[in-house]
Design a protein that fits this description.
2 helices; 0% strand; disordered N terminus; mainly alpha
Length: 92
């Protein structure tokens, strides 16, 4: 049985300017978790402002190349990331 260490939790305080995440997807790695959450932010931006070729190219490059290059080395060759709370409500 796989334990999902990086399970996103939705915000309950959307009235304070926080973005309500309604598509929480459990992930087994920090890379996967970060990519899922970042993709959601890109999707929200695209819904709000529309998209064009430059936006899609940048989004695809970040999601498919940059995230893996930056985060995958942190979880290879026996290394692992211990999940911990690192974000608070910065809007108050």
């Amino acid at each position: 049985m796989t334990t999902n260490l990086f399970e996103a939790q939705p915000t309950e305080d959307s009235k304070a300017g926080a973005i309500e995440v309604d598509e929480n997807v459990a992930a087994n790695t920090w890379e996967e978790c970060y990519r899922n959450n970042l993709k959601r932010m890109f999707d929200l931006e695209e819904e709000a402002r529309g998209s064009d070729d430059d936006f899609r190219k940048l989004r695809d490059t970040i999601l498919n190349k940059a995230v893996a290059r930056l985060l995958r080395p942190l979880e290879t060759e026996g290394r692992s990331i211990k999940p911990c709370l690192v974000h608070g409500d910065l809007w108050r």
